[in-house]
Amino acid sequence: MREVLIRGAEVLVTMDGARRELRGADLLIRGGEIAAVGQGLVTTGEVVSAAGCVVTPGLINTHHHLYQTLTRAVPGGQDALLFGWLKTLYPIWAQMGPEEIFTSAQIGLAELALSGCTLSSDHLYLYPNGARLDDTIAAAAELGLRFHPTRGAMSIGESAGGLPPDSLVEREEAILTDCIRVIDAHHDPRPGSMLRVGVAPCSPFSVSRELMRDAAVLARDKGVMLHTHLAENDEDIAYSLHQFGCRPGQYAEDLGWTGADVWHAHCVKLSGSEIDLFARSKTGVAHCPCSNCRLGSGIAPIRAMRDAGVNVALGVDGSASNDAGNLIAEARQAMLLQRVQNGADAMSVREALEIATLGGAQVLGRPELGSLEPGKRADLAIWDVSGLEAAGAWDPVAALLLSGPTRVKHLFVEGRQIVRDDQITTLDLPRVVERANHLARALAR
Ligand SMILES: [Zn+2]
User: What's phi and psi for 384, nearest 5 deg?
Assistant: First the structure.
């Protein structure tokens, strides 16, 4: 079987049970698996030098809307709160089609890969002009990232008192039918899977109570995960109290939306009892600090969640509300934001890195990912700490979040090298960027 030896890392961050950091260590990849970690390993296969580098598990992104990459920095949405921001962007998104969704995903995933991400989930909840979940799946397959696309949906349009225009909502029966189609066509439940599909109505304010419940039943029947937005900001809480007569946590619990097979994005406004509910039920959280800052939503109580035992992971969120898709930068922001709220000792670099790696693997139900140990899948990020950004750093691991670099030198997914010497190996990136700019300009007209 094909072997690659990662040789001589300055530090190899294992994220194993003892959180060992190994100096001068090697890592042997055989096929798609980590065969060995330690000093003095040998191979007859390829050797990649990790001298002057920190090696970490691949970072895991648990919340994104890849389709939004073509609508970064849109003027009318730059300074709006969540609901106003959505209303600005819906009419633009309504003009998209398969080509825009595909190209947008290529850009978003390439950006993630260069920032150390080896597995991304995605939440696609609008399907204008013939677009399909399959368009994002094709982009991820081409790039070679591990992918957890979720079949999102909106069913309550403006005429029914909802937020999105009627042209962007679907009939609930058609939504469920297409969920079944994409799961049957693409979902791979096996360990080491490169693609798992989830079911993900957009949010409690854009679908009916019935669809939330039916989606949970369908997901459990198919053995796939559930995902949505929850408790994102004060407007969101007010909507829940007014429309449903309860807080979002209660609404989620009533409809079957808690459990180890569920993860919710944001959860900025979770109360103490909702945090306890999530811990007890093993419900996961995708923390999106940059998006929460950008939309002024608030600071998610991540310290309290972690202390209570909630599984927390990171998400960059859509590129129309971040507007970057840099996952290592998101880990830095998560660390900084907890310090704003709780003091300088509230979150260490190493805890933020743990959330970005192991945390993601836990939330997405991937025990074979998230750490560098024999028998785990070979998803790893190699960071050059010999350059400008980390120059003068005393602790190269801490430098990853405190100073830089913010881009990987090499990236491996399932043992395959996706980034080599700062370049994506699987895409003609300048051509994709040119195409994306062309499509974005057309949307702006
Ligand atoms: Zn989102």
Answer: -80, 110
